[in-house]
């Protein structure tokens, strides 16, 4: 639970950092807030209902965030690796 809360805080910080609007990656940075909100919503649903479906929705939201963040210059590689590690550790078959 503590790890999940840390993840949400980390995502919140990343989502509210500025992005450079001068290049193609700015569009991806702009999508980061929505991707972060999707993780928050999916995590909330998963914490209420530890079902396979809610776990898979949370995993999908994490993957979507990684896809968006990978194209945003403002996201540090360490942050991407942390989120990827969280996704890798998520076991939806045990839900």
Structural commentary:
The protein is an all-alpha fold and 95 residues long. The protein has one domain. Helices cover 73% and strands 0% of the residues. The chain contains 4 helices and no strands. Helix 2 (25-48) runs antiparallel to helix 3 and helix 3 runs antiparallel to helix 4. It is globular and about 35 Å long.
Key words describing this protein structure:
about 100 residues; mainly alpha; single chain; about 75% helix
What is the secondary structure topology, with strand pairs?
Blueprint: H1 2-15, H2 25-48, H3 52-69, H4 77-89
Helix pairs in contact: 1-2, 2-3, 3-4
Brief digest:
This protein has 95 residues and is an all-alpha fold.
Number of domains: 1
Shape verdict: globular
Number of helices: 4
Terminal-residue CA separation: 14 Å
How would you characterize the largest beta sheet? Answer: none
